[in-house]
Request: fold
Amino acid sequence: MKWFLLSVGAAFFMATNSAFIKRYFSDLSSWEMSLIPYFYGLPLFLAALAFIDIPAIGPGFLPSMAWVLPMLMVAILLYYRAIRMSPLSLTLPFLSFTPVFVLFTGGLILDEKLTAQGTAGMLLVVVGGYVLNLDSARYGFLGPIKAVWKEPGSALMLVVAVLFGLTSVGGKVIILNSSPLFAAVVIFSLYGVLLTLLLLLTGKASLRNLTRRPLLGIAAGLIVFAEALCHNVAMTLTAAAYMITIKRVAGIFSVLYGWLLFHESGIHYRLMGTAIMTAGAAVIALWG
Reply:
């Protein structure tokens, strides 16, 4: 039960972080939005190194880190760009497509075969994506499908789902060659340092903008730190598939945030679609 509560906590903090950044930092560029939580969370991640055991580092740690970190950086940059430009309830739920892409990459790269349960789960995710935009059905049967591509944040989050599907594979290798907590602290510490230097040196972010609202920034750092902590502790207590499945509840939280904080319309369709997509993700992860 502890892993379940921590997984729901990770989902809650993920959606909360997205809503918080969108509400209080949307006046900044998407570059700066993507940096705020990790810029302020960096001291927490660095301090955590003093309280966790340094594990034996396996041979796959550095090679995996070398490609996972830049790909994760691109994914997170696109993630915040998506939530900045489009309604929260039409972006975060599309992360439920990640297991669908993993099914296909598994077939192409690892010669894994699609099971009946995996195919059923994939179809549920697709149906959920259709229902998510059902308010566009007045433009015809293909209206909800076209709406995905007309909403730039939705299409962008599909790209993020692909990237997260790839980084999850590399992330697992990093964890197996160290430990879940150590991997999280190192990845997000490096992410915070490298992205801060990259954006400041290229002029994509300014220190003045980053430090304009320090109390809100500290709150954002605490939220993303809590998400990482819940995520990685839960990963040590249960199978990764179970944990990731429960974390897909973040889509439902995002729809509720969209309704309560941003007064987004068509919420009943989006809540229904997100629930179907979450169920599909669960079928793929648990039985696919």
The chain is about 75% helix and 0% strand. Residues 61-85 form the longest helix (25 residues). The CA atoms of residues 7 and 244 lie 8 Å apart. The radius of gyration is 19 Å.
